Amino acid sequence: MENKSLVDLIRSLVSSNKEIQNLIREQKTEIAEELKLLRKELLENLLKVKEENKAFKIEVQQLKEKLNKVERESKRYKLIIHGFEEGKDEISDLGTCLDIINSKLGVECRFSDVRNFFRLGQPSVQKHRAASLEVVNYFLKKEILKNSKKLKQTQIYINHDRTDQEQAEHKLLYRHLKIAKENNKEAYIRNKVLFINGQSRTPEDLKKEEAMHLLRLEFQRPPPYPTPKRKTSSSDSKNPNHPQKEPLEVEV
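Request: output the structure for the sequence above.
Response:
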């Protein structure tokens, strides 16, 4: 009778064990399916975020281009004039400016040809401020710029009023022009393109070269060395504040 009860107990345990194993398998299957669905959902969300990010970047680039276009249009008729003395007020400064254009450049420019004129920045006793001159048409501006080379032997020079992007590109081009000439290379700038030993480089090319140069420097940088341990000097042993080693006790 006892043997039969023992057999029934074993059978019950085996049956329970099978049920537990089946339950575990079912749970594993459900978890695997849930993980699969979750992974699919995460990938879909990731792709959606990537597409949104891509669209956002395109939109930002388009806005930048529109802003640059608006800024270029606002500066279409403007010139920046450096190096001529400041008078008592802007009216006298404008008269001096027109005299330079008419007499030194040989370009006819009257008060009626000026749309706007003002000095840039705060007054300074150390140097004369540059002046912004806006004329009524683009042809007159081109004539002034064309003849501005006649001022080479003077401290006066006239430039196109550049946008922020044009100013950054201008600085980039002339920085690399200076470096090339310091290395005894034949270099010059024409139509916003730098030529070095016959090879042309646009501002975009120069930006890429600088980025690659910085990347190479980053990889070539040696790892930081650990701080060397301070050596104990003989003066430390005489210092009462310095911890001293206790002498070894030897049993005789």
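The chain has three domains: 15-75, 78-161, 162-221.
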